[in-house]
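Two proteins, back to back. First:
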Amino acid sequence: IPAEPLFRSMISGEYVHTDAAGDVFTGVFTETETENVDVSGAYIGYTETLEWNGTDGSGSETEEYDEHWNWISASETDRVDNYDQDNILTGYTQTTTWEDAYGSGVDTEEFNSEGQLISATYTGVETKQNGSGATQTESYSEQVIAIIDDNGDVTGYTVTETWDDAEGGSVTTTAEYDADENMISGDYVHTDAAGNLSSGVFTETETENFDANGALIGYTETLEWNGTNGSGSEVEVFDTTGQLISASMTENGVTTHYDGNWNVIDPDAADDYQPADGSQPVDGSKPDDGYYPA
């Protein structure tokens, strides 16, 4: 096992960037390297972060490694300020490129001068197992548009999302949310590999999970749908860092369970299940109430 890397916090740094057109940009940057530990305090890896701010904009780059220096994930975020014709700041655009062992994507978000999200586009691919245990890759795109009233206040959002699966089918959903991101309504159109169309309505909810001491240990996202092609649900359980712990999908009465890496698992083994953060289900029994939804 390699020696643990040196963990450090940079004091200061400057850069000069000359692009292909000969334009020169300058700015400052910082580099940090932090140790990652689990709930027991055991060393599990480290994270490297680079942040910069200059005449060419600002941004950050983050890479995560395990305890053996193996790469886990990476993301890069660039921010560009937006100005009107009078050179008054109107907001900023933020672009994040990410990649891990299970997918990759690009997130582009536009904010107003008050930091409120005005619009966003998310695109990417994800790899997971289907109900038969076969690995498949799905691509997705999502567009978010703010609903703005006559006073210029954001009162909600319209979200349109499309998934294309490896079997040749696709699902397009359209949903409306209030300013606090609570779902108001949603509908979907599903096209299977043969070109057959089906449609229906769906709901999304998010609930917080707590341990026996009342401490927040994560959250659960639930998607339920009902339409001409039947009904079903998808439940994803995350820890407080946003890491997926477990998932399940139920379609027409058949449920498939997944681990935190979207590998199909045997539900009969749930008695041996333990969340990645080391905590236990509230009642100490088979984690069907939040950690391992049916």
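And the second protein:
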Amino acid sequence: HSYHIQNLTSQISGQPEMYFGSQPLDNNNFYLDKDEVQQIEKRYPEAVKYIKTIVGSQEITTNTTRQILDLNESNVADWDEVAVIKQHVDNVKQWRLQQLDSNGQVKSTYKKLARTPWKYDTYNNRPGRHIMLPRQSSGSREYIPMKIYEEGILSNAQAYAIQSDDLYVMGILSTKMHNDWLATFGGKFKSDYRYSNEMVYNTFVFPATTEQEQNEVRALMAEIERIKNVYIDTKNRNMRYLYNPKNMPLDLRNAHDNLDDYVAKLYLRDDYKDMTSQEWIDFLYELYLEKNKQ
């Protein structure tokens, strides 16, 4: 099968924008360890506001978080008396000035960034809760692991974020069909799939639905979330474990089957039947072609 899709800059069905996380370009020098966080909390309480929680692929799938300095909207005078922050900023500056081209000159991007060493290369911090998903996902998974994060939590360049906490959006993206679409149109890295907002999310046609049908998708997704959280909170499991097909618990699998089945009916209506992954790709590709013409 040969398919020709082009990357789109907005979601083809008018769904909320998905964007790339923040890219500090800091060689990890903005990240703080637990001791440093405690030191700032104890000695410089006024600087606590610069500590943010950040997640990427690794953190989303293992249910962990990291702490990072976010000085992007600050002035040097706000924190230059805070030794631990100043040290991190100096380290970022030093590292950026060490990024040389083949002539031994500092690369122009890094030279420019070294002038404002407290700022990230790209900074994305938008209001509201967000659905976040890993940029890279294991090729053996049948579903893409994703999670809703509270306002103010950043995602890094290893994750994508949607400025929405709508379980309808999350539900459609948590189907097998969407994972098949990723497998077909995403990038490949070894045996992993690489998600792309412009090639995978923006090109994916959502079904035509009523508000009542969307509510049903929300209810089915809420049930998946409920089951998932039981394993995460009481059995100390994470999504990397739960979404490995070898480990996937039966109740979680059944909840996903129910969602897949319902969403299949929304797409196929009276023509509802069992379809293979290949048939789904052909079906969704036709929808894409039709909609992209409009």
